[in-house]
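User: quick one - fold this with zinc ion bound?
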Amino acid sequence: MNCREATRLMSEQQERELVLRERLPLKLHVMMCTGCRNFGQQMHTIRQIARTYAKNEDKDGSA
Ligand SMILES: [Zn+2]
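Assistant: Sure. Structure tokens for the protein plus zinc ion:
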């Protein structure tokens, strides 16, 4: 597992459930790698903002 794979898996994790064979090495890598840890946190934050925004859009939506 390198940084490239780790970031790719973290992106895919948003769309689908990772299998254990992906999740385990990813977790180990993120534990050791500050860069990927930050990437994961940023993505999590962006995801939550996007979700909140989408929810508000839906609420005030034109439907
Ligand atoms: Zn890394």
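One thing worth noting: Residues 34-59 form the longest helix (26 residues).
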